[in-house]
Amino acid sequence: MKPLTKKAKIAVAWTTLMTVIGTAMLHQWQFFAMGLASVVLLLIANHFGLLQDPDNKN
User: Fold this and answer.
1) Which of 2, 14, 30, 50 has a CA positioned 20 to 30 A from the CA of residue 8?
2) pTM of the model
3) pLDDT 10s digits, 23-35
4) Distance between CA atoms of 6 and 21, rounded to whole angstroms?
């Protein structure tokens, strides 16, 4: 797996935080599953280079 870019780190951290808070407030496992799927999709997007930092010219 490629190392996470700065943009990917922020997106994964924010998604994880919102998943934890939303699951705690709503007490629904579907919300947790959706958050987990979102994190997986973010990691896949990072692996294929879709989450590049704007200042990275590679």
Assistant:
1) 30
2) 0.78
3) 898 888 888 999 9
4) 23
Name the DSSP class of 54: T
pLDDT at residue 54 in the model: 67
**What is the amino acid identity at position 38?**
S
Q: What is residue 27's three-state secondary structure?
A: coil
Neighbouring CB atoms inside 10 A of 52's CB total 14
- Please state the rounded mean pLDDT for residues 45-51: 86
The C-alpha atoms of residue 10 and residue 21 are separated, in whole angstroms, by: 16
Mean pLDDT of 13-38: 90
The Cα 47–Cα 5 span in angstroms is 10
Q: Look at the alpha carbons of 17, 18, 19, 23 in this order and tell me if their dihedral is positive or negative.
A: positive
